[in-house]
Design a protein that fits this description.
- The protein is an alpha+beta fold and 356 residues long.
- It is 50% helix and 15% strand.
- It has a domain of 225 residues.
- Strand 3 and strand 4 form a beta hairpin.
- The longest helix is centred in the last third of the chain and has 41 residues.
């Protein structure tokens, strides 16, 4: 039976394929890959394909209409007064604006999604430095990346000093993507913001249309909505490219027709008691139990937040507690991903060294 961290562990067996030909049990890897692939419903695959096509064809026209609706004079004035930043600094500013909106959208959306496979966790962008081993002097490459995750899907944003790419892919691919084995050619981005120069300052364009940070609220709504549409496998035509829509509301203006009662229960949800034999427990099973405990705490916190006035000190305290619980959950996920990647790499390296 499926469980969140067991799926992550199994995905590591075929995500890190530099040892794949030498792994002791290839059959287990293939079975893990097939089992994880079957977790993705056909409806989600269909929505993914449709959205990817629509993003390429219609995003430019949508941005152009936004620019006409939202005069940019005030922003141009602010940009003229702002201190100059380098190209990578401009990337950080753009992504920070996007994830600031994601944070607000996530909180409002999760009020209805807590306890389902569509609950969204957010990891704010961080600087990642890697060495380019293909060049003899090993230059350091900087990127700025953050993500949103549901049970089975991830939205991953990655920027450098030239462009920002936003991807949506099955969660099973996360380790492969983070390890650098899947690039833009294998997994084309959903959205690309390309950096240019105007009056000596960085500018941004998507599909040839201006995309300044002031449009982050609209772009964030669209990308957040895309993640939920794909993850739920449900989409209505009137959900797309609506600049005046409210924040995404599950079953109302995003993933229309979603039924929380139809969501399958995970292995962790089935384990309601704490009668645990620690000697027989694996790391991923322990993490699944912790994830379930955090989920129950989040349900309680959201219920408490819904009983008080939104502007009250009690509501602010509840939001801070929710934010802390979600951040803790993401740290657990990130730590387990690192553990999985390193563990499989070590085992693979030992297998190669032994000549198996």
């Amino acid at each position: 039976m499926s469980s969140k961290f067991r799926d992550m562990w199994l995905s590591g067996k075929f995500a890190l394929d530099r040892f794949k030909d030498k792994v002791e049990d290839e059959r287990e890897i293939k079975e893990a890959a097939r089992a994880l692939h079957e977790l993705i419903p056909e409806s989600s695959k269909a929505v993914y394909s449709d959205l990817q096509l629509r993003r390429g064809q219609e995003t430019g026209r949508w941005l152009k209409s936004l620019s006409e609706e939202s005069p940019q004079q005030e922003e141009s004035k602010q940009q003229a007064q702002a201190p100059a930043v380098d190209t990578f600094g401009a990337t950080r500013i753009w992504l920070d604006a996007l994830f600031k909106e994601f944070a607000s959208l996530t909180y409002g959306f999760n009020e209805n999604a807590v306890g389902t496979d569509l609950f969204v966790s957010m990891e704010r962008p961080q600087v990642l430095e890697t060495k380019d081993e293909t060049v003899w002097y090993n230059p350091v490459i900087k990127s700025y990346q953050g993500r949103l995750t549901t049970r089975y899907w991830s939205l991953f944003a990655r920027g450098d000093d030239k462009k920002i790419s936003v991807f949506i892919f099955p969660a099973e691919m996360t380790l492969r993507f983070k390890s650098g084995q899947t690039g833009d050619q294998e997994m084309p981005p959903f959205l690309v913001a390309e950096q240019g120069q105007a009056d000596g300052k960085p500018t941004w364009k998507i599909q040839g249309e201006s995309a300044p940070a002031s449009l982050a609220p609209f772009i964030a709504k669209e990308m957040f909505g895309d993640l939920i549409r794909v993850a739920s496998g449900k989409m209505s035509e009137n959900e797309l490219f609506n600049s005046k829509s409210d924040a995404p509301k599950l079953g109302e203006n995003v993933a229309v027709g979603f039924d929380a009662n139809a969501q399958p229960k995970s292995q962790a949800e089935a384990n309601t008691g704490l009668d645990i034999n620690v000697d027989e427990m694996s790391v991923f099973e322990a993490c699944d139990i912790l994830d379930k405990v955090i989920d129950k705490e989040l349900k309680r916190l959201y219920a408490e937040a819904g009983k008080v006035e939104p502007a009250s000190p009690q509501a602010q305290n509840a939001r801070q507690q929710i934010s802390a619980a979600e951040a803790f959950r993401m740290r657990v996920v990130d730590a387990f991903e690192n553990y999985t990647q390193e563990s499989h790499s070590i085992v693979g390296a030992e297998t190669v060294a032994a000549g198996k």
